[in-house]
Structure formats: structure tokens, C-alpha cells
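Morning!

As promised:
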Amino acid sequence: MNVAVTVNGTVYERDVEARKLLIHFLRDDIDLTGSHIGCDTGNCGACSVILDGTLVKSCMVLAVQANGSKVETVEGLADGEQLTALQQAFTDHHALQCGYCTPGMLMSATSLLRSNPSPSDEEIRKALQGNICRCTGYWNIFEAVKSVAR
Amino acid sequence: MLLREVEYVKPSSIAEALTNLAANDGARALAGGQTLINVMKARAASPDVLVDLSGLEELKGIELGSDGTLSIGPMTTYTELMDSAEARARPILGEVCSKIADVQVRNRGTIGGNLCANDPTNHLPPLMAAIGAELTITGAGGERTVPASDFFLGVYMTAVGQTELLTRITIPAGKHDGFAAVTLGVDGTCIVNAAASMNGSLRIAIGCVDAVPVLIEVESPDTVRAAVRAAALHPPDDVHASSEYRAHLAEVLAERAARQAVGE
Amino acid sequence: MTTIAPEKVEVGKSLLGESVPRKEDRRLTQGQGVFVDDIKRHGMGYLHFVRSPYAHAHITSIDVSKAEEIKGVYGTLTGEEVASLTDPFFQIASEPGGRIKDFSLAVGKVRFVGEPIVAVVAETRELARDASELVEVEYEPLDALVDARHALETDAPVLHDDAGGNLMWEGVYEWGDLDQAFAEADQVIKIDELHFHRFNSTPLECGGALVEYNRGTGQWTIHTNNQFPGFAAIMMGPAMRCGLDKLRFVTQDIGGGFGNKITSHPQLVTCCLLSRKLNRPIQWTEWRTDFHMSMSHGNERWFRDTEVAVKDDGTLLGFRTKALDDAGAWLRYEPLGGVIWAQVTPGMYRWRHIRVDFTQVATNKAPVSPNRGYSRMQHLWFTERVIDIVARELGLDPVDVRKRNYIRTEDMPYETPNGCIYDSGDYARMLDIALDLIGWDSMGEKRRDAESRGKRLGVGIGSTLDSGTNNFGQSRMINPELQFSGNNEVATVKLDIFGEIVVTLGTTPQGQGHETTASQVVAEILNCSLDDVHVRAGHDSYWNSHAGFSGTYASQFAVTGLSAVKGATEMLREEIKKLASVIFGGVPVEALELAEGGVRIKDNPEAFLPFMACGAIINANNAGLPEDLGVTLNCRYVYRPPFEVPDIERKFGNLTLTYAAQIHVAVVEVDPETGYYDIVDYAAVDDCGKRINPQIVEGQVMGATAQAIGAVMHETFEYDEDGNLLTPNFYDYHVPHALDMPPLHTGAIESPSPFTPLGTKGMGEGGGAGIHAVCAAIQDATGKIVTDSHNPYHRVWELMR
């Protein structure tokens, strides 16, 4: 099926099978490999992207369902060389180690801060619950997000 | 990952969706996909056609009637329900939805999808049974309404036939409700849950102990445990809990939900 | 979150000890890391494995014809082909485990659910999976052996006929005088059975590879996330009948490893054979369910018939126990677990009389391999359980029993009963800090508060020694014929033509920030800025910056990796001075110093030669330089720790160079009605000697803590009686998420190692302490002896019944 998906502002037109998941479309069809795959049951959140303004796990969306939609991925966060405050905070607070969960974690935190610029500690935790990290124990991630909250 | 081949259609009306479903025995409705797509990844289910309901505006939205009755479109997401001013008329709904999975899943998963999956570890089946929800099912022959207590038929099976759709969830007015669960970690996979509602008598539904929510009616929280024992549950035994432990939790959680419902 | 850091002693400005931001982060926060699954090649084929649905069965026939007929399917590989194209993998074990024949795909028989049988390669990922469903395999099912405790019974199903039974390896370790210890004892505490469960660290990225074969040179390039390419090469070369230089390993970013990515060599061999057979690059992605079913579970272990000799005052004299270790279906790194535990034989305590009868058996479950804290975690959990059980039986305070028996700071360096040398440490002080962090003094009040809310509060201590830098000579205790000993690591540092300082490491970091800490060491020695130092990302065996033990595993980078970097950088510093000495017309090297990105004369800073000039002179402007200059500005250094071959007969000798320590304290509140519990407070105190980058060290402590919390509460690889894994995904295998994390306080002291060039100690695996601490806390809260390392709510409920 032909789809046209706008990813980070660029329209990508591709012919995809209906069975293709959005995450495979992003990674394999348009070579945006920043979003990752860490599970096969929708638990880990490494593939989190913002679809038409809503945070979703791109492994539980078919590529054909994203036809005509706007997708934001980690590659679209920084403005050229300029990292977002959140990306910088992840570095400053050592909120990543292997970096595999980081893209999804950043998308979840970005989505949180858009809708709630001043989240409480509990709201930060709740917002990141769908993203598994096996390296950091999350504490530094909470600190990083908190530091950017207004 | 890596689903079997499947066709995809996105109808623009309920009628068209019903036609799509009727056209192929292997067609299945795709709501939010937060269960079905995972099942397809495991190739545990492989529909021939996915009928995507996401374009059906008729299946969305929440309305609050003058008598306090809530009418919820099954394609309403958990997040939409949690954010809905109308849904606050029955606060337990948002409270329980906020404990389901995580933000991403709540953003895309739907109330109707949850009910139609009838995964015995989900929170909504016992909640709907306890609060006396009514489910409207639409097929080629028209509409019918079944109470939640008759809606769930077995593991992954509901009263919605292969060529039908759940088209409306109606929830009566009320606010004396309770909910309790033990999950793997905070809000993880559910081990046992229980929902309760006080409306004259106490109506309690226990989940994860049988293929369908187990309903119990009592007069007061003090008799809940005896009533659960009398129900002689034989819950499943699995890696997360023994049958005996689930049976014990059923008593404890039913009582806790009941006490919350009566405001204790 | 609170942090107590050691007092900082300012001795001039040093980069060593600074929490500088990580160099890796810029790419990783932008989704620009290169993980193995991100790599693509023209014409590559996607590999999908057909896996066994049976735990134990003969394979009676395999028919791949229907799969191969499909358009877009490039080909298949079966176990039979593998058996003709390769030799069985080299076995570390002596008799009887050494006789088993292990190939990259199952040959004739399957031994665990999920074992790869056939590999199918196709044009797309989806098609490869579709075709794999058309491969017809007929089985003759056999009884499955799931519980290791039955492995040696006469009627137990036998996995490997070649081994003559399920015994893979056994050995008796005995030091001191057990008879005397038990004669002197006031009491003998007996513990029937303790069980350490099966789990692993489930790195978020699963395994994978992209393998290319160069038909002209006969060489494979293996892009992979294997974390110990040196080991993989030693396993793969002989099996594939090729020299190790034909196997080029390339890694860049690795999405976590924790030991679980050491033993992917069977899958890599399959990829190699297929890339040659099909003449195209082969891409293999391991999915989460595949990983859970087949990759590197941690060792499951029982400790049976334990007896502990103690004095009434809590003085520990010695213990004996029978350790039974479940290796799973294959020995892919085993039976090394049968000796690795001995690095920490007495734990943190001064008992001198110890006997462990170690037995390892095969079962119809996934093969075990290293998992963060490999084999020491099991043994340290046992010793910590023993301490708390002894304290309970004697009616003593676990804090007092620990303090009475801790190896004291004045005993350091301390020789353990089996000849290991604990280099430095102050365990009693660490415990005091940890207890302070959780408010030990007000615990009575907290207990009463919990009780008023219907909860039971418990406090538990868990200690872990993070032994680092293996002496591989210990492998000879497993098999005297092995020719391994010592350890090594390599680094190269060069000054390039335009003055760039380029560093290559032999390691394969998976999040440990090696690019950053290596830069700190280089910049410190060359007295330049961190930005001037470029550490190549990842590992490439073509860079000649590796040796036989290269890799990132077993808590050693801060010792082996950084010592290699230090050595190479010092060589470069001396070469720069030597060159400058000539350029400055014979100024003695002693009169020169490195500063501000160049070299200058100490007494005449105007005489300055920037690195760029040095690089240009040697590489592109070298006419007239003395013939015997001996300067390349490209320095390779091999760090070799000071080890002797252990005494194999006595099983005695120094098995690891450094001993970092961790003491954790957990406070739990248990709901007595349901067994549900929360960790309501938590402290982790770490001592890994000199810390190069404290923030990175603390990050390791935190992550390991979270893994321990997951393991003790939720994470388990459990099987049903037919050998089906019951937790094959993150739905049933619950790893902690953001809402599950307790409040955390961290603290640190620094006891520099006297044995390492930088005073550092390897670290990162200390998280087992969390398992021990939570078990102890549950014991405290419930008043019942905790005998299992896995304590989900239902088990706690059962304890209290």
C-alpha cells in the first residue's frame, strides 16, 4: 500500500505491506534508526515517537495507520547542532549509559513537558513508566527531566 | 515484530465496517491495537483482514446525560477518558484507567478494545461488571444491549460476534465505587483485581481468577470475605501466583474494594 | 536522592576524579549512535531461526524444501550442514563435560525450547519468518530434565550421551581445617537448602550481527554487539577451521551487555557460514522472546546441607556446603562458573575454614553464561544469607555479627583462605555510612509507624565484593590442560599528522563511558584538553588494539583498559619529548614538559612546539631527523597485571587483582495480608578505589541496584515441567520501571588499590548486594528465614502463613 508519512518535517512516500509496523518503516524503509526496538510485546518504549502530537509506541502502530500523519522522532529534536534543553540535561545528569533506551525516553519526556511544563516528581515517574531502562535505574533520568521542568 | 501477511481496510462508517467484517471470516476489528498487534507479532493470531475503526467518529466521544448516565464511545482512548470532564461524573473510571499499562498505551488503547479483548488480566472487565455498565452491540440486524455481566464469555471471548461491533458503553450514575489490585510492580501485569460498587447492595467483580469477572453481591464489606469463599474460586496457577494465593488475594482485594466503595 | 562523596583532596588540578560529561552522549541523545541493527548492506539477507518447540527431543527429519521454494528466500542452513562444515566448539571443561559436542545449530537432537535448528535467509525480515514456518521438522520427544536436583538420579533423562550423564563438572574446594573449626565451634548452624534463582540482566538491545564474507581474502567482517570478541574468536576460529585474522570483529554502540552478550558465538558462526554459502551479507536480529529463550541465563544454584561453625558471640569460624549449579543445556562459557565464585570465597569475613563441594549439571533449559556479578553473586548471596541466618539463630544483631567478622582495614592487603589478596577496603566504615543514610538510629520509630499502618517494616544489609581483573589461570582449576593464565588489555595512542590525538581501545563498552574516562587519562598525561583527545568509538580487531582477553566484562576496564591507555600515553609523551629535544637542538628531555597542546622548555616557555608540528614533522616533514630517533608517535601498550599461575592442586592463588566493595541497606514494608511489599528506603555505598569519573561510577552503582531490585522482586526465568519458559517476554518478565524505583541514597569512599597503576579498581557488578539486602529485609520484616533469592509477593505471603 502506498503511504505518505511526514517524519520530522519531511514527507516520505513508500509502498509498504499492510503488516509492516511503524517502527520497521522508520528504521528500515526510511533509515531513521534512532528509534529502537527492545521488546516484542509493547512494554519497553524504546520505539516511542510522537504521532500527530500524541506519544505512542511505534511497534504497536501499523505503518499504513500513519499514512497522512506527522511523526516526530529523536532525530528531529535537536536544531542542527543545538541540542534541546532536555537532551543537554540528559548529558549533564548522566541520565544515559548505553543510550539504547534514550531516544524513546527523550520522546516520552518531551511529550510530558509539552503538555505539562511543570511536572511533579510523581508526574515525571508516571510519564516515564512506559520506557524501560536497564542501565541507569532511572534516578538520573528523573533528575534530568526535573532540571528542565519549569 | 514481523506479522503474518494481512490486508488492511479503513472504513468510514459503522455500516461499512460491518460490511468489511462480514465479507471475510478472517476479518477482525482493529481498535487501538495495543493488544491485537502484539498478539499478531507473536503470530498467536493472524487475521486475514484488519478493519481499522480509527476513522469512525461515531465510535468516539463521551456524553453525560441529565440523569448522570455516561455514554462512552468504544474508540475513546484511556487518556481521553482520563481527561474528560464528563467522565469525572464516575470518578472510578479515570482512576482505574490511569493504572492501565503506561502513557503510550493509554494514548492509543481504547476502552472498547480493552473490553472486547477480555484479557482476564485487564482492569476494565471487572470494573464494568461491578458498576453495571451496559454494552451496545451493533450488527447487520441492528442493535442489542447486554449488561456487562453477560458480555464477557471466556478468555478473549465476548458477546460481540465476528460480524458485529461494540458501539456504545453506557454507565449508570453513581459514585460509590472502589478498586483494588495486586500487580507485578506498580501498575504492572495484574495478579488479581477487584472492583466494587455500592448501590443499595454492594456489587463486587473480581478479575484474574476466572475466564470472566466473578460477580458477588453482599450487603456490607463485613461479609465480603465469606461471600468470596462461598464462591469457591479455582483461580489459575501460573508463574506469578499460585491458585491458592490468587484465591486469598481475591478475598482481601474484594474487601478492600468494597470498603473503598462504602467510603471506609 | 542524596549522595555522600568522599572528601576531595586537592592536589593541583587533575582530570582524574572529575565528573566530566560523557563524550558518547552527543550522538546517543540525538539517535545517532550506531547499534548493530542500524547497519545495512546492499543485498543483505535477513536471517530467521527455526527454533525448537521441545525441551528435549530427537530430530528425526528436517525438510527445508518448501521454505526454499518461496520467491525471495535466499537459502537455509541446517545442523547437518554445520556438522560437516565446522568442528564442535572447543570445550573449557575437563571430563565429563568436555566430551559434549556443541555446534552452532542443533544436530540430531534438541535440548531446550528455543534452541536454533535451522536458519532461513530471505529478502525481508517478514519473509524470512514466513519461510521459517514452512520448514518441516519432525521430532521424537524425550522426557525433559528441568530441576537440576534430579539431574544425577539414575532414571533422569540424559542430555548428552557423549558425557555419559548429566554431570558436567565437579570439584572439591577445601581450605583450612574444617574438623578443627567444627570442634572449636560453640554451635553448628545447619541450613538445608538455599536457592539462587535463574535470571539475567536483559540488556534492552538483544543480540545481533551483520556478517559479510570476502570471497577474495576468505575473511569475514562481523559487525556485532558481542561484548567479548576475544573469546568469540577463540571459540569460532578452530570451529570454523580458520585463523583468527579471518574473523574481523567490529562493534560500535552496544545497547547494554552485562555479560549476557558474551556467548553469541554459535549464532555468529551460523551467520558466517550463511554469508559464505549464499554469497551475500547476512543480517541477524535477535528479538526479545528469542533472547529470553536462548541467550545467557544467569547460573541457577542450590546450596545444600550447609553447616556453619560459630562461636556464641557470633564469631564465624567456617562453613561447608554443597553447591549444585544448573548450567542449562550447553557449556558455552561454563564450567568457569565453577571456579569464578572462589574469587570471593570468604565474602567480607574472616572465617578461615571453608569447604565447598561444587557440582555442575546439564538441564533442558537455556545455557547459562556470565551475568553481571557472574558466579560471585550467587556465592556472596549465600554468604550473606548465612550471616543473617546465623544472627537470627544466635539472637544477635546482624550489624554486630558483620562488624565482628569483617576483614578489617588494618588486615589489608588480606590473604583469603584460598590465596586471593583483597587489596584494600574499609567495610565497617562503609556499613556505618550506609546505616546513616537510611536513618538507622530512628528505625524503631519507623517500625512503629509502619505497624500503625498495618505494615511490617524490615531492614536488611547486603554486601558484595566486586572482584575485578581476572587471572585466567584460575581456569586450570576447572581443566588443568587449559593454557590460559594472567590477563591483558591493549590501547594505542597516536599523534596524527595535524596533531590529533587518536586513541583506540581493545574494549567493547556497552554504556560504561570508556571514551570519556580514557580521554581523562590521556588528557591528564599529555596535559591537554579533553576536546583534543579522540577516542575511537567501539572496537575493531583491525585496529590492532586488542589482545586475547580484550573485551568489556568482569569489572576490569578501570584497571586493564585504563592502565593500557596510561601506558600507551606515557610512551607517546616520552616520544614527543624525544622529538622536541631534537627539534630544540639537543635540549635534554628532562628539561621539557607538555602543556597547552604542545611541548615546551620548562625554563623557556616561549620555546613551544605544538602537537600539530610534532605530528607533521614525523609524518610528513621528516628529512634530516636522526636515523636512530626511534619515534613513531604511534604507541601501542599492552597492560599485563601481576599474576602467577595458581596452585591447581590446592586450588590456591590470587584469582583477581582488585576487590571493589559495595554495602547496601534496604528498608521494606510488607503488607502482612498479601505479601505485597515496597522498598521504602535504600542506601548503596561503594568503594572502588580511585574513581576517575565519579558520576560514571555512581551510574554503575545505581543501575546495578535497579537490576538487583528487579531480580529479587520480579525477574525470573522459570520453566514448567515440560521445559517451557514461562517468562519469555517483558510482559511476564517484569523489569523495574520508573514507578518501581525506591528512594535511593548513595555514598562512596575511596580505598585506592595498591596494586594498580592508577589506584583504581574494576567495578560495575556490585548490584548483587541489592538482592542480599532485600532478602535480609524480608527476613527481618516477616521473622521467617528467607531461603530463596527470588521473593515475589506470593512467596512472601507463603513465608508468613
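Chain A is about 30% helix and 15% strand.

Hope this helps with the figure draft.
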